[in-house]
Amino acid sequence: MKSSEIRQQFLDFFESQGHTIVASSPLVPGNDPTLLFTNAGMVQFKDVFLGQDKRPYVRAATSQRCVRAGGKHNDLENVGYTARHHTFFEMLGNFSFGDYFKRNAIQYAWEFLTRVLSIPPQKLWVTVYAEDDEAADIWLNEIGVDPKQFVRIATSDNFWQMGDTGPCGPCSEIFYDHGPEVAGGPLDQLLQTATGTLKSGT
User: pLDDT per residue over 76-88, tens digit each?
Assistant: First the structure.
């Protein structure tokens, strides 16, 4: 499947779930002096999350062009080190402005991956921030993720932020397990810092 097909399926899925498709904002933000480049999908919604702007919709989905070229919280040190960090990329995102929260976000992510893209659940690992019991309960008891493929991470890897102040919070990540024949990668690194004693060859 081509990346363009994945992008379109993502946007189509979230549009079917009541999200307004919002065009990518420019790579150079027009009204944000704190950023040299747009470095995340939520940049164009910062004022909405801060209560300084109101949109005619409460759900949005985007395919945002991003550049990460340095600075704090920009993952630049990971470019070239992992297969998932790049200086220029498109970030697919779905956003809610006071409409839904963790439960729906988790359900949408799981449905898109397992039903729309038909990825087998047994190939997916889920992580949450160590103290996020609410998300853990949703993943384990509502979605039904195998506890053997679920990890609590007690580091900043699962606490999202783009600066010292502003929108931030605990997050979940979903990893694809390539199997024991593919060693190393982000999941191994996360497992080394997990609160449990899980081992993996993914």
Answer: 666 666 665 667 8
